[in-house]
Amino acid sequence: MLSLKGEHIYLRALEPSDLDFLYELENTTEIWEISGTTAPYSKHVLNLYLENAHRDIYDVKQLRLCICNKENATVGLIDLFDFDPKNYRAGIGIVVLNSENRNQGVGAEAISLVSDYAFKVLNLRQLYANVMEGNDSSIHLFTKMGFEEVGIKKDWIFSEGKYKNEILFQKINT
């Protein structure tokens, strides 16, 4: 996992000790809109998830990693999802839980590390990200990290009584 270590953060596999962090993150209603969550998660359900988190990306088509700072505190999660080894692509998603850890370069470094891993180790051709229109911080982040806006999914998300567009970003491994 040394290849997943950056200058200010490192990425690591989920551990049983991450239960409280995962419980807080998954039950933070402010991020439900971007995660697609519609109901709270119990610690029991999350514990079952953690028991299976070791499974291989080729088996479960997903890889979830903790974003940790130099003080070894977990500040967020980054995922590869919808892993498609036949077509050499995967989605990428990131969440940094507390606002004091945002806009500090954490997201950019995590995306850089996961992109390198996806392109060099998994030999993926492309990564894509789905970002809600109006999420200016995420739009800026993915654009800064070399992702290109390739389309708009109109009325894709129904939230707070209205439909919202979702922007599709893509990064091709050249």
Describe, in plain words, how this protein is organized in 3D.
The protein is of the alpha+beta class and 174 residues long. It has one domain (2-123): Aminopeptidase (3-Layer(aba) Sandwich), CATH 3.40.630. Helices cover 28% and strands 35% of the residues. It contains six helices and seven strands; from the N terminus they run E-H-H-H-H-E-E-E-H-E-H-E-E. It has a seven-stranded mixed beta sheet with strand order 1-2-3-4-5-7-6. Strand 3 and strand 4 form a beta hairpin. Helix 1 (19-26) packs across helix 3 (43-51). The radius of gyration is 16 Å and the shape is globular. The two termini are 24 Å apart. The model has no long low-confidence stretch (mean pLDDT 90).
Short description:
The chain is an alpha+beta fold and 174 residues long.
What pattern of helices and strands is seen along the backbone? EHHHHEEEHEHEE
The major sheet is characterized as:
7 strands, mixed
Mean pLDDT: 90
**Overall number of structural domains:** 1
Instruction: Tell me the strand percentage band.
Output: 35-45%
Fill in the CATH topology. Answer: Aminopeptidase
In DSSP terms, counting alpha (H) and pi (I) runs of 4 or more, how many helices? Answer: 6
| CATH homology superfamily name | Gcn5-related N-acetyltransferase (GNAT)
* Strand order in space, largest sheet: 1-2-3-4-5-7-6
**Radius of gyration based on Cα positions:** 16 Å
Gross geometry: globular
Weakly predicted, low-confidence segments: none
